[in-house]
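Chain X:
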Amino acid sequence: MSLWVLFDIEILGDPPFVALVAADLANPWRWMRINQFGKRAYEKGRVLRADGLPVTARDLALTHDRTTDTEGIWQDLIAKCLEEGLLADEEGTLSVRDWKRWHRKPSDLPEATAERKSRSRRGDPSRGVTRGHACHASEAEAVAVAGAIPPCSPPAGDGSGGSLSGAPSQNGKRNWAQAAAEVLAQHLPGDLSTQERQALARISETGGRVGAPPERAIEAIRTHAYSVAYETQFPDHGIRFPRRVALERALADVQANPLGPVPHPWDTDKKRSNP
């Protein structure tokens, strides 16, 4: 799943940010690190660790520089951000001021929302679909999803056809479409539209083409349905069709990583050092 943090080009002429850069040319990258913590916490700009505790200068030094030697630099940066009004201190917890300026992804910006509404008024069938990820499944595919479309192909050499947790069986074969719809409904309940059924068909077709196991596509749908359900809890989320957005993200996820998310190099290094 991709998380977006924006670098608003208008800040290049914004006095508080100019003061930040004047203090140290590396401060813009440090500022984005602070925003990364705020984005992952998803607490309206509060800068928190994964365990929910407030982020400290030491935490930032370890994360950004892999050492505590720069803790003093981060303390100075935090003090400067507080002085310039870029950060606020809420009872010992840092928070990014004007959070909406930093955290929205491009498709959620007012201009993008206005464009989607304009396409909707014109009757453009691509309305609400992220450019480049539109589903073009045929009516036959949509009908196939209503029944039991074939699951994604398993990796080469595995003739089992994979397993779909929690999916009902028909004549000994799992009904992938029904399982996917049930997983989607766990987080985003409601009747599937034609476009959403087409999106499911597209995920199945794409998964088979790129060699994704059936459970991989199911897990991608679960992950992104949960993510979209979480995002829509917040005001001005800009997501008009939550289930469709979740399926579009799942499709892109399966296309990019057919066998699952690529492990971070740090995790790989840890495994090598701890066999």
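Chain Y:
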Amino acid sequence: MTTQGTIEISTSKTIFYSLILLGNLVTIGSPLNLVISIPEFAYVFYLIYKNRIDIALFYHIVFVITSVSATSAMGLSDSPMTIYSYSRLRLVGPVGASYVVAIIILFLSFSKKARPPRYSLFYKLFYGLLILALLGYSIGLFGFLVDSHYSMEGVLNYGVYIFVVLINMYALLLNYKESLVKLFYENTIPLLAASVYASAIAYYLLHISTSYGGLDNLILKADLLYYAAILLLSFFAVQKKISVVIPSLLLLIMSFNSSGGKDIIIIGFAAVFFILKVFGEQTNSKKRSFFYYRIAAVFLIVLVVVGVLRSSSDSLFSMKLGQFTSMFSSDISEVDTSPYVRMATTLNIIQGYIQHPYLIPFGSGYGGYFIDHLNMFAGIDLENGGFSQPDVASGYFHTAHDTFAAVPLLNGVFGLWIVLKYSIKYIKRTNNNFCAFAAVPWLLLTFYFNTQLALTGVYFLFASEYVNSSEAGKNSD
């Protein structure tokens, strides 16, 4: 069985990925970004031409997750920006060039006549999400035909998201073999470390910053940095600990400047997992090594506490922490607008279920909506709360802001069960393969939002197969 503690980190790969990420950060919103994305497309098509479909698939996903999306660029301009990165280069409407590449790779993968491994948790997750997609499409299209308040834009947006996820996952399954899983696994730490280094260089050395929520001089983060807390859990899986310690410390330092709400949750979860693994588990390692692990855990606790206490009152971290604590106020009027809108959205969706019980099992489907049953949106600037102007004007809201609101709205209790079921399965696997922790930032926190973050989750959950790849069929999740 392949075990943790044997990864040798490639410095050259870390530098390579850092340069790609830094280039994408520096040229974001500029046609100069094509200097990076066009060679990336050319290289993927070269691999396809050479019939190295599995390697083409690997680099296709790597180039997607090392791109910078419009989400990261939101604070750079008051007007919408055109993004020229590999993942966001558009052909027609919502159809991106990278989507077409994924379809081509999937089509060519069928010729291999491979049989996807049914014992694989990744395989089971694929079919769970496929069921959600079929239900979402069918219910959404039916709703669009019989209810004038359904949104075709909603059908397309959520439909494109799940379609992109599924074609990439199925392509991986059709190319599934231990060597490919190992390739993904061995590149995880170089990719994560590169996201930290590139974001730090862009901010501290090149002085590239962004703004958010009225705050300026925030770190412009690579999208991949959202998953970088996984580095804390990779500590036990590398031979040279310093290759993980340096980017982990740098990540924590940056987090006390520019962490959003979900970033805080993810880093908090990862830190707790790390500490529990050190203090709550029996180990077969040498006593001296385990002693050092405990010293590292104590240092992590001290660093987090000091960072929280010393973070400036006008930092994004402090603002989000204040928003979180406001949720526990006994006076609803004291709850900050951001968490209030999320709470109101969830409660309104639940109220919609109470009034229309037939929605409970499978939801409203893609393009479905909720209304302000409880009149909780009165007096709130909802356009700044993340809703579109047409939705605000009509009173029919077709989007939600979190997994635990969006999934019940679109796929009902069944969808929520699927997401929670596989999140728990992957969290349990984290003890054997740190990559499985990606279920937290993807499935639990951002499912149905941002295809780039979704494919990053797909990358790491596929890499998490490596722990059991040499025991095919022995264990069934």
